[in-house]
Amino acid sequence: MKLDHEKPASRPLSNQVVEPLPSGMAPRRALLEGRFVRLEPVDPSVHAEALYDASHRDAEALKIWEYIPHGPWPDQASFEQWLRDTVNRIENVVFAIRSEDTGKACGMVQYHHIEPKSGVVEIGGIWFAPEFQRTRGATEVLLLVLSHALDDLGYRRVQWRCDTLNERSRAAVRRLGFGFEGIFYNEAIVKGKNKNTAWYSMLDYEWPQVKEKISTWLADDNFDDEGLAKTSLSEMMTNRTARD
């Protein structure tokens, strides 16, 4: 499925009455736990060393920062200071991803642009260590943050945005069933370069079907003895991601 063929998804009309109104609850700075991962609220004194190593240990790891507005850092101390600054922003809820298989912190994900009264939140700041990419745990990370926002807190919209050139991120968000909304051109300057931004969203009424597909894909009976998936989540989501 080529990214060039994305079409904006159909959306609810403006001026529709919202009932009931969102609860006004912000995402929790608390443990979110799955089968394959634990999402732990970032504590720089606990997580900085492992996260720095996971994202800076070699040339492959450093590729993580290509499309992220910040990083990489020259040393662990400067990374840890950035981590402290990020965690201390009240508008962010930042998690370290810990793999249950290895016990190691192997990535980050956060909620930001949180608007509880409107029931809107954005998932961003996502990166996975190279060895954690394309694993069941990586998919479960997104299931956990989506479930917390849409199921636990009753949000109406979870949004995702990324550089239009970041094909890995765009493929990942389509694989998860998000709807494509369009492109903001000249939206930002990042690391001295122009950024065109692709926008995606998951809406509350879409989520139950998407959640079922992700859960079905993660189930043990979808994997063979070598740990390879028998079905493609992207193919399962085709009808979700190609909407007119």
Q: Can you tell me about this structure?
A:
There is one protein chain. The chain is of the alpha+beta class. It has a single domain, classed as 3-Layer(aba) Sandwich (Aminopeptidase), CATH 3.40.630. Helices cover 31% and strands 26% of the residues. It is built from 8 helices and 8 strands, in the order ββαααβββαβαββααα. It has an 8-stranded mixed β-sheet with strand order 1-2-3-4-5-6-8-7, with helices on both faces. Strand 5, helix 4 (136-152) and strand 6 (157-163) form a beta-alpha-beta unit. Helix 1 packs across helix 3 and helix 4 runs antiparallel to helix 6 (207-218). The longest helix is centred in the middle third of the chain and has 17 residues, at 136-152. It starts with 31 loop residues before the first strand and ends with a helix. The relative contact order is 0.16.
Terminal-residue CA separation: 15 Å
Ranges with pLDDT <50 over ≥5 residues?
1-5
Shape: globular
* Strand ordering within the main sheet: 1-2-3-4-5-6-8-7
In the CATH hierarchy, the third-tier topology is known as: Aminopeptidase
Classify the beta-strand content into a percent band.
Answer: 25-35%
Total number of strands: 8
Radius of gyration: 18 Å
Give the SSE string.
Answer: EEHHHEEEHEHEEHHH
Alpha plus pi helix count? 8
